[in-house]
């Protein structure tokens, strides 16, 4: 038999309508079959991931290749993920002697980094583009909420916009206060969790429109959250927050009634009480500000702020997870 005849026989035995190409499904979402005895019907579905763990090294390698380990963003992600079991341990210890059945996830802004318009070195030093940053930040917060929520009966997510989430040109925001990447991130998370039966009735969201701050009740305590870049007058962050709060009280804004003022922006932890009010400044999740370190000589420590709100004392158990 000639080679041509052998080839013809091989081709004839093939079904041209049948594809031999293997379909590669995303890791953790391989197809399986779901069958209901009640309805006597079934469907092909994607098998859910067995855990909430995300391989961040794998995620970043999809962006940068094998050099992903050389990027500083991985340090921040690993630090963030290391905080979650520490938070869970702290919550379980507190619940042994305190009635704590609600949780607040407060986003104080600058969750992602605008790629230009803030300082001259920014475009060179920013490692992820806007879409990559949004994806990583969304998955980090999604993981945090899914890991922490099972410890509580109800949850609340409240985000406000920071200055690095603004849309900027030539160093100035050119759209609206509400057109902010931090707020957009909160909306994405809201849509995700509201579609999940396990969360839609127990997890609520407070998302501003064009406001730069939010004031709401938490267990009988009035809490105001903001990023802090709008606090401008004063020699340091403590003086700036006090002056800003005084101006809000003079204008009779709702913030004037706050028992706790919670803000970020300055990258280091600070807390002080004044006139039966707590003003608390959350640290940053990254390794601080190179600009602040080189101009002021100080270096801030990364961490995640936790505290208990409510009861006779109004606030207690303030702890920075590191």
Describe this structure as you would to a colleague.
This protein is α/β, with parallel strands linked by helices and 322 residues long. Helix content is 31%, strand content 21%. It has helices spanning 3-12, 56-64, 73-94, 122-125, 130-148, 181-194, 237-250, 290-296; strands at 31-36, 41-46, 102-107, 154-159, 168-169, 172-173, 203-206, 213-218, 221-226, 260-263, 270-273, 278-281, 304-309, 315-321. The longest helix is centred in the N-terminal third of the chain and has 22 residues, at 73-94. It is globular and about 100 Å long. 20% of the residues are buried. Residues 46-50 have low confidence and may be disordered.
What structural keywords apply?
322 residues, alpha/beta, three-stranded parallel beta sheet, 8 helices
Q: What would a concise description of this structure say?
A:
With 322 residues, this protein is α/β, with parallel strands linked by helices.
pLDDT below 50 for ≥5 consecutive residues: which ranges?
A: 46-50
Assign the structural class, choosing from mainly alpha, mainly beta, alpha/beta, alpha+beta, or little secondary structure. alpha/beta
Q: Classify the helix fraction into a percent range.
A: 25-40%
The helix/strand order is: HEEHHEHHEEEHEEEHEEEHEE
What share of the residues does DSSP label as strand, in percent? 15-25%
Radius of gyration: 25 Å
- Count of separate DSSP helical elements: 8
Shape: globular
Chain-averaged pLDDT: 84
